Amino acid sequence: MKLELTDRNLQRYHLTGTLVVVVVLALALAGSLLWIGLTEYRQITQRFEQAQQKRLHDRLQSEMDAAVGYLDFLQARTGMVLRKALQEKTAMAFQIATAIHQHEHGRHPEAEVKRLILEALRPQRFFDDRGYFFVRDLQGNGLLQPLNPELENTSLWDNHDDKGHFITRGLIAAARSSEAGGFSSYRWYPPDNRLEMSDKLAYVRLFAPYGWAMGTGDYLDLWHAARLKEGIERLRAWKFGDTGRFEVLGLDGQILLQPPSPGDEGKNYRQLASPEEQDIQRRMLALANEGGGLMEYAWRRQGSDIVDTRSALVQRFASWNIVLVATLSSREIQATIDAEKASAWASLSSRLPYAGLVAVLAILGAILASALFSRWMIGLLQGYKRDLDAHALALEQKAGELHLAGHVFESSNEGILITDAERRILAVNPAFTAISGYRAEEVVGKQPDLLASGKHEPDFYRSMWQTIRETGSWSGEIWNQRRDGSVFPELLQITTVRSAGGEVLHYVGTFLDLTERKEAEDRIRQLAEFDPLTGLPNRSLLRDRMAQAMARAERENRRVAALVLDLDRFKTINDSLGHAIGDQLLQGVAARLRQLVRHSDTVSRMGGDEFVVALTGLEHPAQALPSARKILEALAAPFQLGEHELLITPSIGIALYPDNAGDPETLLKHAEAAMYHAKNQGRNTFQFFTPEFNHWVTERLRIENGLRHALARNEMRLHFQPQVSLATRRIVGCEALLRWQPTEGELVMPDRFIPVAEETGLIVPIGHWVLEQACRQLARWDAEGGAPIRMAVNVAVPQLRQPDFVDSVRQALQQAGLAPGRLEIEVTESVLLDKDERISRTLEGLLALGTKLSLDDFGTGYASLSYLRNFRFDVLKIDRSFVSELHRNEADIKLIRAIISIARDLSLQTVAEGVESEAQLEILQELGCNLGQGYHFSRPVPADQLGELMRGEREA
Ligand SMILES: Nc1nc2c(ncn2[C@@H]2O[C@H](COP(=O)(O)O[C@H]3[C@@H](O)[C@H](n4cnc5c(=O)[nH]c(N)nc54)O[C@@H]3COP(=O)(O)O)[C@@H](O)[C@H]2O)c(=O)[nH]1
């Protein structure tokens, strides 16, 4: 059935449905109440029935306990009664015998008296005529056997029962046991059964006059049977309640007591006429054999149709092999149970109308409530429907908007990428595909970092996501990679979409491909910053770069050089060969200049024929020279421009930051001034900005040029300064010190030319020459018979970097025929700070060779003590700056003391430099310094002078 849904029908359905539910619930409630009442009624009556049954059973049990107690009593008394009777009877026999003996003794012969006594006893009968007296002599002969006279005067000594008991011996023993006599048990055939013996008890006394055992006995069973009978009769009369009685069954099934049918007594139950009766007795017997218990049975009185339901407690009385049944009619409790049921039912019935009324009222109340609820609900539903309508309308609008958004998403020129909160891509639009080259199915489910170009450091992305987390969005330019591997710039905006609860749902990335814009910007920048003709940075870019280089130079304590160069007579070429050739020439010059400079340097065209080369990171002004020279050399080669071979020369002006100017503009201005100065000097040359600089540079150039030829021109000399033992004041060594005596000019001291030699690498051949000469000189002194002093030779860092340095030392020693230990290689502290492994290798090689190692100028550099431990030095030279003020400065004393102490710890010899006075010498002596070197002993002198000194010493 299809329900028609209208506003009205909806109300009806709701009301009807509610009513149905309410009525069903009310009926269920009433039914439940009724069911609960009935259950309660059933439980009450059941409990009561059980209680009554228990009472009935308790009653039966208590009656049974009393009956069993009574029978126990009877059974226990049986033996006692028998014993008493036997004693009485024997006493009677004893009286008879005694009386006859007393009366007849002496009057008749003894045999006669005996006969009289025996005959008097012979007819005596008792115990229902079974009882008689017997007499035996103590030898076991039968004297009186009333029932078996044939046994009289025979020996019964060995007579025994079915269990092997010697009967006569037992009787005699009992008679002799005490004066009063005694009991003896044995077995014998009862009167009615000659086949099977049963237990018998006899009482015997010793009749002393004749030594007779005299007594009587009887069968125990018979006494028990009599007691049982007595008990049954008692139980017959035992009544309890209205219907309570006892019944007794023999274990063999014989009915012993059956008060309602005494005619059945003595019968076996199997002989009963009624099968029901038989069944009852059989069940009772079976229950007794199982240990007894309660049973119920239906009993019909003989000749009556009334069936009585009875409860019976069955219990076996083992001593007499009988079963006791205490039985009571259930009628006795049924009336009480019925009365209780009636009362419970009346109580329930009285509550039913109230329950009905409650149910009816509940139904009515529920109907009313449901009607009201229904009205209220309908109101709510109508309100809800209005909301739904409004919502549907809103959804319709939203759908329209979404449709629009979808359209925008699909048709947008901006790439759009939507991810979930875990940044897995959910959707991308066609523009994304167009820009990145990735189709949607290739990126969905992946992370956006598949677009990463590798151009940004991880920090960039970390900071980007940090911003997104903190502000909800990020925008900026970023480099990404397309599917084809090309890298492109994009303007990216990432926005976080959150739920109403603030939970991140999505990230939306929109981006614009900036490739074209960048290219345009690059073109603009190119135009703005580069010279269109040569492609070199223009003045503006040069200025920027120079500013950056200056800032860096300031931080690093370096210099920036601006080399402004102008092409000599370019105007003539331009005017004569035309602008095209002029332009080609400028391009050619630009190309050559570009090849000359390092990546960090800049070649720029300022306009016309003027170029600037900016050199960065210079340590000193002279480092600008090689570049200036290279420019001159590079431009010296002719330019082949079509059919024209052109020669061009530049004039170069050099200015240095920070020496000549503090900003790019001033620096360029000064360099230009220097350039004009160079032009005035005759072109194809360079000029530094200041005269002092010019002088310094010129001087340096002169030294450098001179040094290149110094060895060839034999201009180098060695002087030697002695090293004196402070303990003995004798010369123990000397230091070779280089001097340069140019052919034309005055003597040049090492401070001026060694740095130039080191920078230009000329120190390597010069140093080699020093080594050879020093070794030769030492050998010469040896040959003159001098003491075997040690020769110290200064070695510069560039020498130590030479892989063959150790070999060259070995060679020098071998050539001079010296032991390696005679040579001391002096290095400065800077060696220790140099990380170059070639240096350490050389030092190791020298140590392996066996030369001594000396650390020069100790304390002036930055070497820490730990370096001393890293290299195995032999000698530590204390710099003369500490020695010069030694006699005036306490701090210097402390310092030298510390140095000497460290040196001693490391087993180093100490040499104090610059000892100029006796006072210094004494202090050094006191401090424990080993050797001294200085003007106090001798200035550095030519070899022959030192030879003289040593000779003097020897002769002194
Ligand atoms: N790589 C090489 N370096 C060398 C070589 N020859 C010398 N040098 C180094 O040049 C520096 C200057 O040497 P020099 O001008 O010869 O000065 C030495 C002494 O004249 C000077 N000295 C000695 N005693 C005194 C003194 O009492 N007073 C005083 N004012 N000056 C004195 O000290 C210089 C020796 O110094 P050092 O070498 O540190 O022992 C100098 O640093 C040399 O190392 C060379 O062949 N190769």
TrEMBL record:
PROSITE patterns the record matches: EAL, GGDEF, PAC, PAS
Residue ranges of the TM segments: 15-38, 354-378
Annotated ranges, domain PAS: 407-447
Record-annotated PAC domain positions: 474-526
Gene3D superfamilies reported in the protein's UniProt record: 3.30.70.270, EAL domain, PAS domain
Broad class of the protein's primary localization: membrane
GO biological process: cellular response to nitric oxide
SMART domains documented for this protein: Cache_2, EAL, GGDEF, PAC, PAS
Enzymatic reactions: 3',3'-c-di-GMP + H2O = 5'-phosphoguanylyl(3'->5')guanosine + H(+)
InterPro entries in UniProt: Biofilm_reg_signaling, Double_Cache_2, EAL_dom, EAL_sf, GGDEF_dom, Nucleotide_cyclase, PAC, PAS
Membrane topology: Multi-pass membrane protein
Pfam family name, one: EAL
Protein name: PAS domain S-box-containing protein/diguanylate cyclase (GGDEF)-like protein
